[in-house]
Amino acid sequence: MKFTVERDVLTEAVAWAARSLPVRPSVPVLAGLLIETTDAGDGLVLSTFDYETSARASIPASVQDEGRALVSGRLLADICRSLPNKPVTMAVDGAKVVLTCGQAKFTLQTMPVDEYPSLPAMPESTGTVSSELFAQAVSQAVTAAGRDDMLPVLTGVRIEIVGDQISLLATDRFRLSLRELGWNPLASTDAEAHALVPARVLADTAKSLTAGSTVTIALSGSGSGDGIIGFEGEVSGGFRRTTTRLLDGEFPRVRTLFPTEHKTVARLDRASLIEAVKRVSLVAERNTAVQLMFDDNGLTLDAGHGDEAVATERIDALVKGDPITTGFNPQFLLDGLTAIEQPVVELAFTLPAKPAVITGVPDQDGEKDTAFQYLLMPRRLLS
Predict the structure, then answer these.
(1) 248 lies in a domain?
(2) pLDDT of 155-179, one tens digit each?
(3) Closest alpha carbon to 22 in 57, 72, 56
(4) Domain count, the chain
């Protein structure tokens, strides 16, 4: 194996492929990054796999000799970041890989290639979606995903495909996000499918595939457990592909949690509300709520109690309906407000003890944008 490649192209591809390497691999070879060169048109192919998630990047390179080599992925990523801005040549020399870049030279020990597991094949393509739109939608949806590995089902994002629409849902039991977007199915527009994808993998993948104009989504299996989902996007002269095993388990039926009617609706400037919540929450003790009181005079925020520090701030709000006082975990509230991109937010309530629905609005008099909805459970207020 021998090839020459541009330094920046190699560095970016190695960093992308190595990002999903396990911190504590079950077997040593899973810490490796597989380097392959062929004359079949793929040029240089870099791959990683931990039996759950695979990453495969193809980049243009001048191939002198075909071959394969397995080296430490994290070490190679560190080396590539430190190289001078000159072409990189890599070649196999016995049981070692020799990397040269200008006057810099590194010799890396190889791992046994024959012990490395075969990467799963990319399932048959299901459809395509705008890469920028997909990245934005995923970043909003994962806001509410759980981080408790004791509840693995809640650490995923449920992808629901119905015709030319995709829905992304996530919840950690205290909040719920729903993001809907259009896409281009390759099969019948009446097709339906679903998948429960690890939120971290989905977020990293969507963010890394924005170099091209579209992302190809490929889904196979039962939608959980033994199923696989794949994502592929083009980069200059090559492609990036990720596959991951779907999470096993039944995602809770959460759509019914969104109320159909509201007794109180408030619209506020999003930036002003974010800054006010940040200021007031400075005095909120750990795991205590920030109080929000909506009435004809606007919104009053309160935090702190008793002889401890106390903060109060009033900001303008257009309130329609009954006055209401409720409270939220300030960080969860900020997460939802930050995920919204419109300049105005709408908070809709039924009762103080019932969850609120937060959506974005282009302006105070505009129609709310229901493509992204963030449902937040209230917290008990201290007396």
Answers:
(1) yes
(2) 999 999 999 999 999 999 999 999 9
(3) 72
(4) 3
